Amino acid sequence: MKITNICCIGAGYVGGPTMAVIAQKNPNIKVTVVDLNEARIAAWNHDDLEQLPIYEPGLDAVVAEARNRNLFFSTDVDGAIEAAEMVFISVNTPTKTYGKGKGMAADLKYIELCARQIARVATTDKIIVEKSTLPVRTAQAIKSILDNTGNGVKYQILSNPEFLAEGTAVQDLMAPDRVLIGGEQTEEGLKAIQALVDVYSTWVPDENILTTNLWSSELSKLTANAFLAQRVSSINALSELCEVTGADVNEVANAIGKDSRIGPKFLKASVGFGGSCFQKDILNLVYISKSYGLNEVADYWEQVIIMNDYQKHRFASKIIQTLYNTISGKKIAFLGWAFKKDTNDTRESAAIYVADQLIDEQATIAVYDPKVTAQQMESDLNYLGTRAEEENERFLMSIKDPYEACKDAHAIAVLTEWDEFKTYDWQKIYDNMLKPAFVFDGRGILDHQKLETIGFQVYVIGK
Ligand code: UDX
Ligand code: ADP
């Protein structure tokens, strides 16, 4: 079966870039990305590529090439589903904030709505592809909805989890370590798998396309993220031990990373991991393990989250303690709000939690981030629900100029590893701050010796 028409439900961080690359690499396939959010679709269609709703290096060029050739962004969800032979589901699956599994299980509300919508409008057979990260055996639920509410249309469900990392999405999509496709091991299932393999094989070498059964594919995604997050929590756990023993976490990371069995990547100590995937996926793994009665397995993975929460908390406490245990009325500048560099995504960013703890102590936080809007920062803080929105507004300011953000501040905290921070005129920043002037480098990116020579008092995580 040759695919000529693809629909993707959800024009977010995953759906948008993934479909842009699929369309660019397959000019003969019409790819339509749909979303309920009209403003988001309008932004994807904006003439000015600076206005795309998602910031990813290199994405503008891919969109410029494929958009309105064979890549389309639309709010006509029904029309696009109907016309497609293959429908990707790429909607959000946040952690549940209510009811059973609250704070742990994935909220599958949006997935179920998609399945029901497909069942309602489809008149021809379709291959449904799960792109969002889902708990194991979600495909079963989707299948059951489609088979029982549809009108005789036949469906095949595939799991094709996305492994792109934000900030390097285009690069990761262009040259993926692997593409994983899971499907039913029946004649029809294998045909569906092959149809999706053909879409990717226009640019991904065959040996990098893995096919598995559905459940292996779903579980592999959770496992990959859990292993990556575990590495960050492991090195972060060591960062505190380094601080008290006089070891340097970067030297330790370098030394262990040279061991080919361990490897050098993902060993950067930080103020804590963020992003939409790590925490959610581990919580999912924990919830699934618990629901099968595997309490030791659940506890093992939960510790990765506990360590991460502790690291954010420890960083904020370090600031408070260093500033003589009183930060009420003091201005603290934040460099960075995004959960990592080269993205405007702030989901689960460590900055939000550190700000929250400092605002509890009535400090004023002046944030500069090159890509995050003031509105986003406010809504992130309000989402925690710690205090009234007016209070948050009073204590959190977004400043468009980094020098202005640091002016008259008692301390600077680096929360995101944006490259531009390294190129600032740090002498000028120092001159305009209150003394003693402190820098808390939560990402270990600044030249701390240089800062100390200028006169700053510097704290670097893991040193
Ligand atoms: C992750 C996975 O890498 C990706 O494969 C999956 O599809 C989605 O989840 P992402 O969340 O975009 O991607 O970012 P990632 O680069 O994995 O970083 C996650 C967090 O860990 C960031 O906050 C990052 O700053 C932090 N991190 C990463 C560290 O603190 N230290 C490291 O060494 C690496
Ligand atoms: P991700 O990082 O997984 O891509 P996002 O939140 O960035 O997550 O994107 C998910 C998108 O899915 C959002 O833009 C949301 O509006 C969209 N969405 C959710 N449910 C539906 C639905 N039933 N139909 C169409 N779009 C949907």
Automatic annotation (TrEMBL):
It is an enzyme of class 1 (oxidoreductase). Pathway: Nucleotide-sugar biosynthesis; UDP-alpha-D-glucuronate biosynthesis; UDP-alpha-D-glucuronate from UDP-alpha-D-glucose: step 1/1. Its EC number is 1.1.1.22. One of its GO terms (biological process) is glycosaminoglycan biosynthetic process. Keywords: NAD, Oxidoreductase. Substrate binds at residues 162-166, 221-225, 261, 268-274, 339-340, 443. NAD(+) binds at residues 10-15, 35, 40, 91-95, 132-133, 166, 277-280, 347. The active site is at C277 (nucleophile). It catalyses: UDP-alpha-D-glucose + 2 NAD(+) + H2O = UDP-alpha-D-glucuronate + 2 NADH + 3 H(+). The keyword Kinase does not apply. Pfam families: UDPG_MGDP_dh, UDPG_MGDP_dh_C, UDPG_MGDP_dh_N. GO terms for molecular function: NAD binding; UDP-glucose 6-dehydrogenase activity. SMART domains: UDPG_MGDP_dh_C. Residues 333-448 form the UDP-glucose/GDP-mannose dehydrogenase C-terminal domain. NCBIfam families: NDP-sugDHase. Catalyzes the conversion of UDP-glucose into UDP-glucuronate, one of the precursors of teichuronic acid. Belongs to the UDP-glucose/GDP-mannose dehydrogenase family. This is UDP-glucose 6-dehydrogenase. It comes from Gelidibacter salicanalis. The lineage of its organism: Bacteria, Pseudomonadati, Bacteroidota, Flavobacteriia, Flavobacteriales.
